[in-house]
Amino acid sequence: MISEVVMPQMGADMTEGTLVKWLKSEGDAVERGEIIAEIETDKANVEIEAFESGVFRKALAEEGAVIEVGGLIGIIAGAEEDISKYENGSAPSIVSREADAKTAELPQTSSDPTGDAPTKAEARMETGAGAEAASNTSPAPQPDKAVSLPTATPSGRSGAGGARQRVSPVARRIAEEAGIDVRTIEGTGPDGRVIKRDIENALKSGGQSQAPARGQQRSATTTTAPSKMRQAIARRMSQSKREAPHYYLLLDIDMTAARETRAQYNAALASGDIAAPPETKVSINDMLVRAVALALRKQPEFNATIDGDGTVTEHPQENVCIAIALDDGLIAPAVLDVSAKSLAEIAVESADLVARAKGGRLRAPEINGGTFTITNLGAYGVETLIGIIQPPQTAVLGAGTVMPQAVVREGQVVVRQMMKVALSADHRATDGAQGAQFLSELKRLLESPLLLVV
Amino acid sequence: MPEITYREAIRQALRYQLQNDERVFLMGEDIGAYGGSYAVTKGFLEEFGPKRVKDTPIAESVIAGAGIGAAMAGLKPMVELMTINFSLLAIDQIVNNASKLHYMSNGQINVPLVIRMAGGAGSQLGAQHSHSLESWYAHVPGLKVACPATPYDAKGLLMTAFDDENPVIFIEHTALYTLKGEVPDEPYRVAFGKVDVMREGTDVTIIGYGGSVWQCFRAAKTLETEGVSAEVLNLRTLNPLDTDGILASVRKTNRAIVVEDDWEFGGFGGEIAALIQEHAFDDLDAPVLRIAGADIPMPYNGRLEQAALPQEAEIVRAVKEMV
Q1: What single-letter DSSP state applies at residue A43?
Q2: Among B8, B60, B134, B172, the one annotated catalytic
Q3: Known catalytic residue: A315?
């Protein structure tokens, strides 16, 4: 049977992705679940798996092409199956190509006063089968779009992004003066035109000014256009703060016993008493991940996502995201089905997840399948971290460093290893009393760490 | 400051000129015994006598030509052609003689002539009596064109017109004669070539002159209630044109819309739009728009006439689409 490979939706706000690399050549056999391509979203590099076994018959998108979500990029089918309907005029809805982007960065030598050279995709419209297909398959004429390439997917949406970007003269001038790449700016003017206020807003939100160095030499103010990742973070975090009414609960947890258990557990790993790959070590965060998953088992209302109309969906698996700092931002991929995994397995998987996040090689479920997030800046000595919920999840746990503190036990001041945690939860989905129960269960688990091992 | 009508403001300027400069005389159809078609010169014949206030035959070319000759000979005539519609009969004298003599005589001859006429539509006067042809005169080098929109401008601009050593076309709007506004009793002058920012704003510049200023003004007030801050420019004179004043406003608001009663095709709004894009292209957030009269002979039917003229709602809608 024919299986269409399409640009996947990695998160609700993704509209397009770049096909980075095909890992299969036309004619290669593929197994269901096998990784066939790498794509890049505005947040990360992701691998695409084959949904069916068969033969990778046709690559419909070239490496480097930007394809809208849902756009057809390749075909998997039986070796002899007829895929002729994909052979002609079924170019994917290419939004742009890297090559075009590079052209546009060159000094403006084009006679076009706006400096927008037509994209290759536009040029292609003028000749060849693509143009014919456009007139045959486009559902309706779109006079406002400079180009609408056809797409063979049933959804049939044409690439609005393929149209020439509208930028008002004043917006273009200010962007140039500020060193902002207007192509990174979303227009809010008529017909999506980028206008002055868009650049000014971009300058306000994303512009970074360099602090003047001490001494005589002061460098000029510099402004930087936000990277795709920064834009995604800005969009998602703003959305969360705008839409999700956060409530916050803070609690101190005594980690003295957890630290001892961790030491014993790691010793058992080193000696081989607990089976695991060589050099596996459990971190405090791994214990926190497991404790959170077990607490979520008891209170599944926090293992949930919420949609625009307030419908809350509880999930059967605890896919606990861990926030990972990257050079140019952060990403929070999920360790999947945590409550079914041992501490050692969690340790192995989270180390792998960190490595792949930094290498930009995360998989789809890890990026968009999370149900709860932990963010931990303990390694930096931060005491309290109050996080922002990642939409569409409904809660995030912020963890601080584990540090010796004077506390009172049975009337005596004693030194214990304490950790401050903060639960930020969406009040649309849960109430404070439920949050308090969740934290109290988390505290019970971490202060009786044997429960994490069994 | 006293509130007087646009008509009274014009009367004050004319009386001042008649009283203070013996070279000044008025000439035109029905301006004496009848007191003027729009009653601007009512009582002047009695007050200043038939040498200063002359009724003429119905012969616009003669009226203009006689005015040009008198001006060349050292007098300061004000000729009234009643309406801009009838000025078409005088246009040869105005364009071929009045505008050019100073230039063609290498400055030896001046033509200090004020030519008054009423223009504009909106009073159900039919297609032949409802013209807004000010752009025709503004087009001609050597003519100055003033289009007062307020009583204050009417008096001040007319005073300035009499100071000029060469011809000034002074176009009054028929719909404004009864408009009241504050006007100082004492003589004052309103400079040519200087826009009046009637209302300050930040989002769009709405440019009008003569009657259309008030559509702009009302639209700006409506837009304010909808969160759009519109700046209204009253051009006052089309030639000389305050290009710098227009550009300064557009550089602030980044958007412009020109409103005129005249036909859109080949009209004055196109000139302003062209100047803006030429000099302030890099300050624009949107294309410069024109709202003008429909490109048809003016209908007599009152509703159709209003539909053919720029309306406040049309301006509001256009502005909302461009911000």
Answers
A1: S
A2: B60
A3: no
